[in-house]
Amino acid sequence: xxxxxxxxxxxxxxxxxxxxxxxxxxxxxxxxxxxxxxxxxxxxxxxxxxxxxxxxxxxxxxxxxxxxxxxxxxxxxxxxxxxxxxxxxxxxxxxxxxxxxxxxxxxxxxxxxxxxxxxxxxxxxxxxxxxxxxxxxxxxxxxxxxxxxxxxxxxxxxxxxxxxxxxxxxxxxxxxxxxxxxxxxxxxxxxxxxxxxxxxxxxxxxxxxxxxxxxxxxxxxxxxxxxxxxxxxxxxxxxxxxxxxxxxxxxxxxxxxxxxxxxxxxxxxxxxxxxxxxxxxxxxxxxxxxxxxxxxxxxxxxxxxxxxxxxxxxxxxxxxxxxxxxxxxxx
Length: 331
Known about the structure:
Elements: E1 5-12, E2 18-25, E3 35-43, H1 46-53, E4 64-65, E5 69-77, E6 87-91, E7 106-109, E8 115-116, H2 123-145, E9 155-157, H3 163-174, E10 179-183, H4 189-195, E11 199-202, E12 218-223, H5 227-235, E13 237-245, H6 259-263, E14 267-268, H7 278-291, H8 294-298, E15 301-305, H9 309-318, E16 324-328
Parallel strand pairs: 9-10, 9-12, 10-11, 12-13, 13-14, 15-16
Antiparallel strand pairs: 1-2, 1-4, 3-5, 3-7, 3-16, 5-6, 6-8
Helix pairs in contact: 1-9, 2-3, 2-7
């Protein structure tokens, strides 16, 4: 087994500045966890961009191998659930924060963090979905579990051309919901309609100062943007509707009032994907395998080599990445 492992490693210098570089490590450098994985693919999420650039203090220990997602094959296991040859994936559980992550050719991971790769997906496809798509499915489940049906009205998806938004549009459309996709990039209109969006909402229609209550438009909302966009979406949500925030691409503020909550019974139901219990994780991946069309998925992602991770992380923060970027860690 090769001792030489390429990895994207974040380090903090004497001035406290965090930066990441492509480095070579060895098997002996890997953490003492109970499953050794030969990683095939990872993916670049917004959070990865924050970690790689040091924009926010995502990494809590140094040195840190970045990457909040991975898929691969078990090489060695001391965990009762896993054996050599098993196809597994991992996301969340503070990978790239407290535990070494997936931007590496091999990694040792706590076996409790792993999920079996659905039979219908290959290792590349599950990373095309990744944390972003998995989070999107958790948001869709929040809408379903709230009791919102396709006959109740359209579902608004903000940041729709991004990773979370793209998968949310696909899944909701497949379930029969009318999907309103919000984007600030008019050139993505055909892309979003091909995913299943029935209407396109301009970013500026939402990213503005809103009234406490506005015209009721949405039975539910999947929001990856935050700030004024989220506040406007809440003000436009129908009676007993649900708003599901899961990201902060537009900022972490929430300049809203309680009026939609107390006068229309609107529920704001946040979603986080890091510490989600295993039953909900497996439900999400099972439903993704049922709902995501493989041919459609192929139009949502591109695959890039490990050496481009830092560049892509910078681009994703600038909002110039469409869909998903999968990383072939062995390329």
